[in-house]
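Hey L., structure's done. Input below.
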Amino acid sequence: MKKIISLLLLIISFSGVNAQIIIGDAVGTAAVKTSVLLEFAANQNKGIILPYVRTLPATPTEGTILLDASTPTAARIKVYNANSTSGTNGWLDLSGQNADISSVLATQPTIAAAPELITAKAIVGADNTTASGVLVLESTTKAIVLPIVEDVQNIPSPSPGMMVYVNKSGNKRLAVYNGSKWSFWRP
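Output:
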């Protein structure tokens, strides 16, 4: 809990500054840091956990990625695409399969946040943003470097909504865990 609070304070302290945040070590993975806002140490066998939502946002920001738990027995990782091309806009499923996360949701709080916390967010890369989200990376030239693992099988207890980049020789890809199975996306 202490580490989480320290991390949140670090993120909030950088929220109005054009800065890069590295989580897990002081160096990160990239030698040149000019295009990175948020980065994680490599080969830690850990991932980033996407937010679980019980109701999909009505007006999401393009690029929003989350674990859709609106049907707990059919949870899926989704990304919002505002592309105007027919058939490619709206919530796109990244999982390709359902997961039953009912038992995980039973331990998650369901109470409404205090009014002052409903719009609270940490912004990295800009002074402000119109995007809605808890953690917003705001940049037109920089991105996130996902946690890098050699193999998802090395992650001891993956959590629903986990996302990592697999850097295995001949098998590099994005991996998302919906609470039941890993789904893989190749570049």
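Helices lie at 2-14, 102-105, 115-118. The first helix runs from residue 2 to 14.

-- N.
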